[in-house]
Each structure stands twice: as C-alpha cells, then as structure tokens.
Amino acid sequence: MSASTTASISSLEAVFARQRSAFNEHPYPNAVERRVQLDRLIEAVLARQDAIAAALNQDFSGRCLAEVRYSEIFVSLQSLRHARRHVKQWMKPRRVPVGLALQMAKAWVMPQPLGVVGIVVPWNYPLFLTMGPIAGALAAGNRVMLKLSEFAPATSSALARLFAETFGADLVTAVEGDAEVAKAFVQLPFDHLLFTGSTTIGRQVMHAAADNLTPVTLELGGKSPVVLAPDAGFSQAAGSIAYAKFLNAGQTCIAPDYALVPANRLEEFVAILRAEIEKQYPGATGNRDYTSIINEKQYSRLQRYLEEAQAAGTRVIRIPEEGSPAPRRIPPTLVIDPPDHLRIMQEEIFGPILPVKPYHTLDEAIRYINARPRPLALYLYTRSSQVKDDVLQRTVSGGVSINETLLHIAVEDLPFGGVGPSGLGHYHGRAGFDTFSKLKPVFERRGLTPGALLRPPYGRLQDRVMRFLIRWSR
Length: 474
What we know:
By secondary structure, this protein is α/β, with parallel strands linked by helices. It has helices at 9-25, 31-60, 65-91, 128-139, 153-166, 179-186, 199-210, 234-246, 266-280, 296-311, 343-346, 362-370, 385-394, 429-435, 460-472, and strands at 4-6, 94-96, 105-113, 116-120, 143-147, 172-176, 192-196, 216-219, 225-228, 258-262, 315-318, 333-336, 353-359, 377-381, 399-402, 423-424, 437-445. The longest helix is centred in the first third of the chain and has 30 residues, at 31-60.
C-alpha cells in the first residue's frame, strides 16, 4: 500500500501494523532525524502551495486566495518551522527536585515518542489542520496516519500526493475515503488519536477510541461569544469581528458565533459593523475575496437557519440585500436579537451569519455565557482591567482573545484546545509535542538514601527519623 491511497477498510490494519513494526525497530529518532522530517515537510508545502490553493478553490467552488495564503499556508509553515526550531530543546530531560527523604537521588521527566498517532483532518482548513497536528507528532518522534476529509476531495488528493512523495508509508500514511473508512480508522489501536470536527462526531470518536483505551485529543467547536463591554470601542472592534466572522465565510471553528452588545448601543453597533462588512467585502456574493460554502448540504442547513429566524419575526440583515450570488454564496448576515429557542442560537453556525444579542449589565452577559456549553473561544472588547479580570475569572472557555479575534490560535506557544463540549486536550508548540509524547517519570538512586533508614525491622531509630521528616520535610 502506498503512502497515499483511497483506503479499503481492510487495508487500514495492515498500514497500522507496518507503522507499529517500524516504530518498534526505531523507537527513539534523534533530534537531527526529526528536524530532517520537518524540513522535508516544509519544503513540500512550499513547493506545492499553488497546487494546494487551486485544490481548495476547486473544493469550495471559490476560496479566497489571500485567505488561503494566510490562514492555510503561512500558519502551516509557522507551525512546522516552530517545531523544527525547538524540537531539540523540547526533547531534553526535564529535571525535577526530590524531597528530603529522597536525597542522594535524582529524578527527571523523559519525553518519549508514543508510537503511532492517528489524526482526523476536517474540511474547513484541511492544510493547516493537517500540518499543525503533524508538526507536534513528528517533533515528538512518532509515526503518523492521517484520515483526510472526503468533503474536500481535491485538497485531500493533493495532500495525499504530497505525503506519498515526501515520506515512506511506514512514517506517514495519508488515507482518503468516506465515512465508513473514517469509522474504521478511529477504531484502530492508536497510541494517540486527534480528531477535529463537530461535537456530535467527537462523541462517537471518543466512544470508538475507548474500546482500545486510546487517549484522544478532541478539537471541537461550539458557540464562541463576543462580549462588547459597555466601554468597548466599536469602530476598532467591528474591524476584527467582521474579519474573524466572515473569513472563510464563517467556516472556522473559533469564529465568533454570537455577539453580546450593550442594549443601549445595539443599533450603533449594528450600523458600525454593517459599514465595516461593506468595506471589507463589497458586493460579497460576487466578490472573489469572499469564500463560498463548502457544499450543498451545509448551504441548505444555513438557509434553513435564516428561514426559521425570519418565520419567527426576527430582523435579518443581509449585506448586500440584493445581488447575483456565485454558487453557494450566502452574504454576510446579521440576525438581531433572535429568540434563544431558534436553531441559530442552539447549534454552532459554521457560516457567515452573526446573531447579535443585547444585554443590560455585564453580569447578565456573563450569566448568559455560563448558562451554555463552554465555548472553544471567547472574545472580549474592553478598555477596563477590572472588566477584563472579571470576565476571565468568571467564564471558562478553550481560549481567549482580548480586543482581538482569532489570533490566539496563531501564537505557537499558547496551547490550543477546548473544554467540555468544545474539546478535550491541547496541541500547538510545546503543548503539541507533550500531547504526542509519553512524559515518562524516571527516578535514579545514587548511593545511600535516608529512605534506607525506614526499612523494617522498625524501632526507635525509624520512629525518630519519621518524626523528623514529618516535621521538616518540604
């Protein structure tokens, strides 16, 4: 079986066995080997960036090239280069202190490769959400199997060719295939499995992995709020909110899913945000800088959200209101104060629709967030240190950006991950290296230790030593 293939279900176990055997033969690649692997992957992405961009454009029937260069190619290379630069340091043993009773000994943590890692790649950012995890997995010294998305077939094929031409199948294997292949893939006894996708599918993946006691990292989603505090500067906020929400037509796991705005400034915010959208995406539905919805299924789902909101009498603002859209284009859309029972307020939107909800006090806004499942991201706009501390301390989310959106994901040394329904575990930078490593604790005795005095037969000496340790040990 080649390093890239549309897999038959029966072939997956053979690929896994081959990688496991290769790992057993060479379980601890040195820093030079790991850097060479990362270098090869960096060069492969650089050489194929135009082909990958073209494949993405084909899959989406219109994917903005400028967005691809930043949100796919640049950030992928940043992850790979960061791992290459730091892998030698990350591999070093991490000394830990020993207590008084264990003197004349030393202890350390040894980062050790786990073995064979499985990565399930989604369709919305298929390059970045392949390269970000694999950077950590290869830096940690593992073999990797990838399940690429069937919903972005041209990009998956391009990535499969990239891996086939860059690595042997015993190091990295990229698998294409449908939902049945994905189901079989997550049932393999990986040493770690990372899944990026919906909360619903994440539950199924975790259940399948449990049969093998496979540890999982789940990068899910949910409804990430934007909180505009009473003192927020709306002009500054609107620019970054519009960018974050309508990048990739909202098909971003950490895109703002709804905005909480002071009730007495609601119309001011709507007007400023609308002007900002018109500035960034003039004539959006026919604008080449604006991305299409990935497929008809997702397009129809979003249209149903809007139809339900309109049927409930909710104000819906499309920007622009008129125009001849390109295939599967939904214009940037604001939904003003929708009732909470609507699906648009119950489910992750994953599209270019932003509900705007008014609140009367900051406490009310915080209670609103805390009454819902914990989100993957939270965004806060404020000039007040007190407000910042209050929101940070009283809400729980996967990550936070203050007076900005999205950009916490671009900081390689910030762990990225959700909490509860929005995810489990972290990766990026050293956090990713650690996720894909066994942080093995090691203790080494060096000569005699005070602990030897505590062995039986017990008597007065042991009693005195233990009393001393209980009183003074730190």
